[in-house]
Amino acid sequence: MCSLWIKRPLAALADCPGGIVVRDGRIAELLGRGEMPARSMENVFDASRHVVLPGLVNTHHHFYQTLTRAHPLAINKKLFDWLRALYPVWSRLRPEDLRLATRLALAELMMSGVTTTSDHHYLFPDGLGEAMDIQVEEARRLGIRMTVTRGAMNLSEKDGGLPPDSVVQDEDEILADCERVIGKYHERHEGAMIQVALAPCSPFSVTKSLMCACGALAEKHDCRLHTHLAETHDEDEFCRASFGMSPLDYLEDAGWLSSRTWLAHGIHFSDGDVARLGRHGVGVCHCPTSNMVLASGQCRTRELEAAGAPVGLGVDGSASNDSSNLMEGVRHALMINRLTYDASVSHLDALRWATQGSARCLGRHDIGEIATGKQADLAFFTLDELRFSGAGDPIAALVLCGAHRADRVMVAGEWRVADGVPLGIDVSELRAAHGAAARRFL
Ligand code: ZN
Questions:
Q1: Is 252 helix (H, G, I), strand (E, B) or coil?
Q2: How do residues 255-299 score in pLDDT, each as one tens digit?
Q3: CA dist 442 to 67, 70, 71, 228, Å?
Q4: How many angstroms separate the alpha carbon of residue 90 from the centre of ligand 1?
């Protein structure tokens, strides 16, 4: 599709009552009331039923966990007990399971309006050496942008870590695969569809030596760094007992305090920590749903943003959410932040975290906004369901009434979801195959 006029939307998260002109995959013009495109258009889409948002950007997930949602061994536990229950179950993961889990998570995300996602994949039991390749293939198949993160665990129980031996790798093997994946897939140009980040899992599952080595590799290859940090009090106690310092001091010690880094959760930070994060431009992915499910705590979004730290949004893994719906995450972000602060936290704050804020976490300047020159990544919602009837402000209605399914989604000017369904896959077939694969994990 070369040129398209998205004509007169019902509403949009930009000042463009006349519509949006898309040309060669980018937003070429925003039209005022009564304005027409400057040139003739090959295609016109009547958006009079649609509320148009920038495509949502998900900055934290663990796709493989879709296979262990609402797992009887793990429900109603806090993080460390939840992890100890699930590590042995997850060690059964095979390539065909990861492929189905990735396809399912991507489909779910896209159906909720997501156009770019990352996935923190840190689980590499024997036989799963091509996990990153599988994820790239699936993202390309569905046409979604993706930052694959080559995660890792190398600190098992016998060395003082939390995971069992069956799910960890050694440092040399991890670093060799990081280099391989970056060399094969990391795109640095504007409009990149696939990028690679390095993502040792957490302070309690990797060695500091691996953290340092990944930091150096990211510098060498100009890619980003991601890890879990300051999620729970247990993690804080682990860091003080094992390393004699706080999680943020540990991060600084490993050379990660930089604008190359974005962190998952980022809850238990002192005022001094928040100021340091802001000074160094470290991003924080706020995961409201997961934080409530695991009772982990409340992210200090307002202080972090005020200090200069980008704040994005993530659904987190599908065993601590347990869905992959980022619009639902936007609503949860609004609610938990109102509880943390006050009613001045608005639906526009929550939407900003899921779009511009998330794009900044991933180091991207070309997505996350409906603005001239940005990539044409857009999510279209209707207000046709009963839950929206009677709503006044269409944008606020999406968040307050609980929009959870996009009618259409566009990535780089191409339709990827139509009539609520991702193009190119059979959703019922996928549900059946994924459900069958998940039975092995019970
Ligand atoms: Zn996570």
A1: helix
A2: 999 999 999 999 999 999 999 999 999 999 999 999 999 999 999
A3: 9, 10, 7, 26
A4: 14
CATH placement of domain 56-361: 3.20.20.140
Distance 422 CA to ligand 1 centre (A): 25
pLDDT of residue 1: 58
CATH number of 3-54+374-422: 2.30.40.10
Ligand 1 centroid to Cα of residue 297, in Å, is: 14
**C-alpha 262 – ligand 1 centre gap (Å):** 12
Measured distance CA(371)–CA(190) in Å, rounded: 15
CA of 268 to the centre of ligand 1 (A): 15
Cis geometry, peptide bond prior to residue 322 (ω within 30 degrees of 0): yes
In a 10 Å sphere around its CB, with 0-12 CB exposed, 13-18 middle and 19+ buried, how is residue 350 labelled?
Answer: buried
Q: How far is the CA of 86 from the centre of ligand 1 (A)?
A: 13
In the sheet where 19-23 sits, what is the strand order?
A: 26-31, 19-23, 3-7, 43-46
Q: How far is the CA of 340 from the centre of ligand 1 (A)?
A: 21
How many angstroms is it from 62 CA to the middle of ligand 1? 6
Domain boundaries, the chain: 3-54+374-422, 56-361
Ligand 1 center–CA 353 separation, angstroms: 17
pLDDT band at 382 (very low <50, low <70, confident <90, very high): very high
- DSSP 8-state secondary structure symbol assigned to residue 55: P
